[in-house]
Amino acid sequence: MNATQLLNDIEQLPTEAQHQIEDFIAFIKSRYQSTNKTKLSDEEFVGMWSDRPEITKGDKEIDPAELFSIWDGQPRDLSNIRKVAWQRSELE
Predict the structure, then answer these.
(1) Euclidean distance between CA atoms 30 and 65, whole angstroms
(2) Does the global pTM surpass 0.85?
């Protein structure tokens, strides 16, 4: 099937089917374009940790309070995590 025949076939379909084909083409394009991945070091998420010290096994120079300060005042066990999450969802 050539491109002209394919285009003619698509044009003969109902509008909803044409939208489905459009979505499918976008999905296929994104799937094949994902092979052009950026370097991990260029990812924003990775960069947010760039100021954190490296941890090696047996490293006694690192202060655990410094590493885990983001969890200060946050629930640390599953039952309390659920309670906090449910309270937030009830407020929304």
Answers:
(1) 42
(2) no
Calculate ∠ Cα 21-10-20, nearest 5°: 20
Write the DSSP symbol of residue 43: S
Q: What is the pLDDT of residues 17-64, one digit of tens each?
A: 999 999 999 999 888 876 556 676 666 666 666 677 676 777 677 666
For residues 29-50, one letter each, b for 16 or more C-beta atoms within 10 angstroms of the residue's C-beta and e for the rest, the string is eeeeeeeeeeeeeeeeeeeeee
CA-to-CA separations, 53 to 27, 61, 62, 69, 77, in angstroms, rounded: 39, 10, 8, 14, 26
Q: Are 55 and 62 in contact (CB under 8 A)?
A: yes
Residue 19's alpha-carbon distances to 12, 14, 15, 37, in angstroms, are 13, 9, 6, 28
